[in-house]
Design brief:
The complex is a heterodimer of chains A (826) and B (289). Chain A has 826 residues and is of the alpha+beta class. Chain A has 29 helices and 21 strands. In chain A, the strands form five sheets. In chain A, strands 5, 6, 7, 17, 18, 19, 20 and 21 form an eight-stranded mixed sheet that branches. In chain A, strands 8, 9, 10, 11, 12 and 13 form a six-stranded mixed sheet that branches. Chain A has a three-stranded antiparallel sheet with strand order 14-16-15, covered by helices on one side. In chain A, a hairpin with a 5-residue loop joins β6 and β7. Chain A is elongated and about 100 Å long. In chain A, 49% of the residues are buried. With 289 residues, chain B is α+β, with helices and mostly antiparallel strands. Chain B folds into two domains: 105 residues, Immunoglobulin-like (Sandwich); 175 residues, C8orf32 fold. In chain B, β3 and β4 form a beta hairpin. In chain B, α4 packs across α6. The longest helix of chain B is centred in the middle third of the chain and has 15 residues. The chains are: A alpha+beta (826), B alpha+beta (289). At the A-B interface, loops of A face β13 of B.
Chain lengths: 826, 289
């Protein structure tokens, strides 16, 4: 009936004997993988190579990384998905839902009546467990949902049975990576995805997020917010928090964004304090509240645990949920399942003996050579637990005697576990062949309005000769399945920008400033290097070098010692140090530092930037790595041209794709403020003194990207009056000073708290005064030179006044909107 | 014995504090050997909220939230407490330590179950090294309370009372290595030794009589809050031992509260915005009425 099932591309695929292989069964492809055969079978196709390349590109573009053993690593995704057999899925689904219910009941009991500790379970299971957090005892979770999201690591034994290797209940991560994998796979092989009729993940995520919000709403207010509490960009899983936040539409906040008052939790926003109903916790339970948990932690918010205990906020998962995330509980689950649910545990765990029980202790001590000995209560970081973590002992058992003694001294601290030969799955080896690698399967279960639901997908982790690699998990749909499961309801609320946390607002404002500052710096450097490359517009070389180095050093983009050397030794001095001036992060000169500021700030608001914008940030970040292409000043100019293009693209992305909320307005305001300051400085440097070096007006126009505008408007060479008119008071020039002031005024007029109680708000006054000052300026007067000093006194004073207004405005905005905790930037 | 207790805690900050959260274990609790007649906590500046609750162990806790900018915070706790002398506990008539571990583990009665929670490591009580330190005392069949008294003596003899060597976060192995410390350290060490052998033991925070009767020496640790350990014995319940002063407590120790270790009952625990460097001054007065 079946034609040949050998697969040319996988012909060399040789799963080891004695283990279960997911793909083949005695050399024949298993039925549920067959829909992939056409691509794998085609001898002419370079499918695996192409797929591998395309995935690498997508991962790189999206900068998908993870943190393990102290370093940030690129995320690896294999091009061949893992296919789950639909019949098997049904059994897993039943088993995992039952397990989720069971674990939730156990946690509810441990933090509630503790009936299980009155004879059913030994107390040491809880009190010797450092993840049992006493301050959380008495927390009544809304609807008894202590565990909103769980994940389970599964492995398949050689006889083909799935076993649960680990319950993850504390703050399950990895979901964001599963989604990212799916996004990349559906983009790189959309045809296969369609052909296999693969179940989608959207419904699961929607049920999860609406379910949680509904539950939280019952204890909170209708306007109450749902937030993702993160530790910020330095956290190992920040990438996926951003991903989830964007997907679910919840703002990502840090502890400092929350305030607890009168037993309620609030988010500090631009519009003041807003009540919070639900905290999706992405930080460790211990870090949630310095008042009752880890006193040293700065990640949580003081008082949040009291607020939760008083029933005023839902924390998901509940603080202390890690109490069942350990190996010790495993051997009790069958009994507890009978006891609490009246059912047989349908999906067994890998056989485990907890030494806290006398019989199990004896078994472990006399079988140390066969068993894997593990720490009973330790929770392992999720992504650094590779498949190998399930195969090896935590404890060195090479010498069994002292080990046995150690176990007897503190038996409750150890478990012995059956070892497992994990099933294998084909993985593409970039050397050009398929290899069989052992795998674990991570599946996700979420609390929804209709009880626990299992995500029809997941995350497979394999250990290949290339290191840790992941796979997307595909579940082929049974006919008609999807239709009945599609949700009828849309997501009830989407976040509005009105809930913008003050800290995020601050980051957005500064992102605007730093982006604009980068552009200013790049234009200055470009003029410098153009001149060095012989393309400069100022004919008098030493004078030009002088002007540019002075400008650069006055803005901190060139250290004084380099500027002085340039003034003395001329262009050679600059040319010799192209690299350190531009991209050496250690150098005190500017561009690398400015770019670093952009990146750091962008990290903090990553969930508010589109994927495309983020890709552009990534490529800007990589610009300094292009040093090998830079040898001459002309190379530098090309590279800087390229950077300017990228900056315009970022600005375009932001302009086109960001909703016009407070966030966008602040980002724009930051940009305008920065541009205004840049203009004031450049004009003052190039125009306020007589005699004026030849070509400085042309340079000014170039630095302000207004050369073309000037040419089309005046059709003549620049003169002082035409340039001042264009750059100071022409309201239609988007590069001119008055335009920046007017735009700032317009953006800020719609911000909250803008109408002062008595007339105009202070910032509005500042802007109005500056605008009037500029509009009323008399060009002839501005051009006047005081013969004694050679200074254009009127112009100089006007610029000075504008500069003061702009820096007062910055202070005013910080006072009104931003979090003073972050401190001053400049 | 009836006591009048006054406990003043004063924080002085280098720079103004904008907001301050404080959790206090400064109100003595009542239990079978102690009755609290009156207790009050007064705070300057005036807190926005001041609430009292009971924690997991049954201790009285006060939560403060202060919003007025301030550069000095004063917490004044005053109470009137009656302590019953701990008579009738005969060290050599207590059950053996082995029996105690079994009773605590079996958790058959409410008392044994409660005691069974205190047999394990806790945030400030690491067990490493403690088992070996106590080993010479663990003769088979030794009555538990005799063992506890010997442990108290051993710690008192081996360790020097010296401030500044340790702080509240110093782990037990470091105390073992330095052979010096203050009352918390000795209490933690005692707990570690007992728990390492599976015995139920808890940390007690409290006060000592500050002005001893004529002719008696003043006990160490009387000028501030004090700490010691308590061991559970199936026959006599919880019995307190003070390794700092080498004695089984009688009626001169007033209990504020108990927990697994210092972290469960620290007198003050705060989280402030601003402040800069801070100075802490504590004054305790315990006067017999």
């Amino acid at each position: 009936m079946s034609q040949t099932t050998s697969v040319p591309l996988t012909a060399a695929y040789q799963p080891p004997a004695g283990v279960y292989d997911e793909f083949t069964d005695n050399g024949r492809t298993r039925d549920h993988w067959r829909f992939l055969e056409e691509v794998l079978n085609d001898p002419a196709s370079q499918w695996a190579e192409e797929q591998d390349a395309s995935i690498r590109r997508l991962l790189n573009e999206n900068a998908v990384t993870y943190f393990a053993d102290g370093t940030l690593r690129p995320w690896q995704l294999d091009g061949l998905p893992f296919v789950l057999e639909p019949g098997e899925w049904a059994a897993l689904e039943t088993g995992l839902v039952q397990r989720a219910n069971l674990l939730n009941r156990i946690v509810a009991d441990f933090y509630g009546p503790t009936n299980l500790l009155k004879g059913t379970l030994p107390q040491s299971l809880v009190f010797a467990n450092s993840n049992y957090l006493l301050p959380s005892v008495g927390y009544r979770a809304p609807e008894q949902t202590f565990l909103s999201l769980l994940s389970f690591d599964l492995g398949r034994t050689p006889d083909g049975h799935w076993r649960v290797l680990a319950n993850r209940t504390e703050a399950p991560s990895g979901l964001g990576y599963a989604l990212e994998n799916r996004m990349i796979m559906s983009r790189s092989v959309p045809d296969l995805f369609e052909r296999g009729s693969i179940a989608r993940l959207a419904h699961f995520l929607r049920s999860y997020s609406t379910g949680m919000q509904q539950t939280a709403r019952r204890i909170g207010t209708d306007e109450g917010l749902s937030v993702i509490l993160s530790a910020g960009p330095d956290q190992s899983t920040y990438f996926e928090q951003v991903f989830l936040g964007r997907y679910l539409g919840f703002p990502i906040v840090e502890g400092a964004d929350l305030a607890v008052q009168g037993g309620r939790v609030y988010l500090k926003t631009l519009e003041g304090l807003k009540p919070v109903n639900l905290i999706m916790r992405q930080i460790e339970s211990m870090e949630m509240d310095p008042m009752e948990l880890d006193a040293q932690s700065m990640l949580g918010a003081p008082g949040v645990l009291r607020a939760a205990s008083d029933g005023n906020v839902m924390v998901a998962n509940a603080v202390g949920s890690g109490v069942v995330e350990n190996d010790a509980i495993m051997s009790f689950l069958p009994g507890l399942c009978e006891n609490l649910l009246g059912e047989t545990l349908s999906l067994p765990s890998l056989a485990t003996w907890w030494c806290g029980q006398p019989d199990a202790l004896e078994h472990v001590v006399s079988n140390l050579d066969r068993l894997v000995l593990r720490d009973a209560f330790e929770r392992k970081p999720l992504l650094s637990t590779s498949v190998e973590g399930y195969l090896s002992s935590d404890v060195n058992v090479s010498d069994p005697l002292p080990v046995a003694e150690r176990i007897r001294e503190m038996p409750y601290a150890y478990v012995g576990r059956e070892s497992i030969a994990l099933s294998t799955v084909p993985c593409w080896n970039p050397a050009g062949h398929w290899e069989a690698a052992p795998m674990t399967l991570r599946m996700y279960v979420a609390a929804t309005e209709d009880g626990y639901q299992v995500m029809p997908g997941g995350l497979v982790r394999v250990v290949t000769s290339q290191g840790d690699v992941s796979k997307d998990v595909w579940l082929p749909r049974l006919r008609g399945d999807e239709i009945t499961r599609l949700p009828a309801t849309a997501l009830p609320t989407r976040r509005s920008d009105r809930d913008l946390p003050s800290r995020t607002a601050d980051h957005l404002f500064w992102l605007g400033r730093y982006l604009e500052r980068t552009e200013g710096a790049v234009r200055l450097y470009r003029s410098l290097f153009r001149y060095i490359a012989g393309e400069g517009q100022i004919s008098d070389q030493p004078v030009a070098l002088n002007i540019l180095t002075r400008l650069l050093s006055s803005m901190d983009y060139l250290s004084t010692h380099r500027a002085r050397r340039a003034a003395g030794a001329g262009r050679m001095a600059v040319e010799q140090e192209l690299w350190s001036i531009l991209f050496d992060p250690e150098s005190e000169d500017g561009l690398a530092r400015v770019l670093e500021n952009v990146n750091r700030t962008a990290e903090h608001v990553r969930e508010r930037l589109s994927r495309d914008a983020w890709r552009l940030f990534e490529s800007m970040r990589q610009a300094p790595q292009l040093r090998w292409r830079v040898h001459t000043a002309a190379d530098v100019v090309r590279l800087l041209d390229d950077l300017i293009e990228k900056l315009s693209a970022v600005n375009g992305q932001i302009h086109e794709n960001m909703t016009r909320g407070y966030g966008w307005r602040l980002l724009e305001s930051g940009r305008r403020l920065e541009r205004g300051q840049f203009l004031v400085r450049v004009i003052r440097d190039l125009c306020t003194r007589e005699p004026q070096p030849p070509g400085s007006l042309a340079l000014l126009l170039d630095l302000c990207d207004s050369t073309l505008t000037h040419r089309s408007r005046y059709q003549s060479n620049p003169t002082l009056t035409t340039v001042l008119d264009l750059m100071l008071i022409d309201e239609s020039n988007p590069r001119g000073l008055i335009f920046q002031i007017e735009t700032l005024k317009r953006h800020l007029a719609t911000m909250p708290g803008w109408e002062g109680e008595r007339g105009l708000a202070p910032a509005q006054r500042l802007l109005l005064a500056a605008q009037t000052d500029l509009s009323l300026a008399d060009l002839d007067k501005l051009a006047n030179v005081l013969s004694k000093t050679g200074l254009r006194t009127h112009l100089n004073r006007l610029l000075k006044r504008t500069e003061v207004s702009l820096s007062d405005l910055q202070a005013e905005l910080t006072r009104t909107y931003f979090d003073p905790v972050i401190g001053q930037r400049h | 014995m009836e006591y009048q207790i006054q406990h003043t805690t004063r924080f002085t900050y280098e720079q103004p504090v904008g907001s301050s959260y404080q959790t206090l274990h400064l109100t003595p609790r009542s239990f079978d050997r102690q009755l609290v007649n009156r207790a009050a906590v007064r705070v300057t500046p005036e807190p926005l909220s001041q609430e009292t609750r009971i924690d997991f162990f049954g201790n009285s806790v006060t939560d403060l939230f202060i919003r007025n900018p301030h550069d000095e915070l004063t917490i004044f706790s005053e109470s009137n407490v009656v302590v019953t002398a701990n008579e009738g506990v005969l060290l050599d008539l207590s059950p053996s330590w082995e029996t105690t571990t079994q009773v605590a583990r079996s958790a058959l009665t409410d008392d044994a179950r409660e005691a069974g929670r205190f047999c394990f490591p806790s945030p400030h009580v690491e067990l490493a090294g403690a088992r070996d330190y106590a080993r010479p005392l663990m003769a088979p069949g030794k009555p538990l309370l005799r063992l506890a008294m010997e442990l108290t003596e051993r710690i008192h003899t081996d360790f020097e009372y010296r401030g500044g060597v340790t702080d509240v976060h110093t782990p037990v192995p470091d105390v073992l290595a330095s052979r010096a410390g203050v009352c918390q350290d000795f209490a933690h060490l005692g707990l570690a030794c007992l728990r390492a052998w599976g015995l139920p033991a808890r940390y007690v925070s409290g006060y000592l009589l500050t002005r001893p009767p004529e002719g008696q020496a003043r006990l160490t640790g009387a000028d501030a809050s004090h700490a010691w350990f308590s061991v559970w014995c199936p026959e006599f319940g919880w019995v307190d031992f003070d390794p700092t002063n080498n004695l089984k407590t009688h009626a001169e120790h007033i209990t504020i509260g108990w927990g697994r270790d210092y972290s469960d009952v620290s007198p003050t625990r705060g989280h402030i915005h601003g402040g800069g460097a801070q100075q802490l001054d504590v004054a305790v007065d315990v006067i017999p009425v």
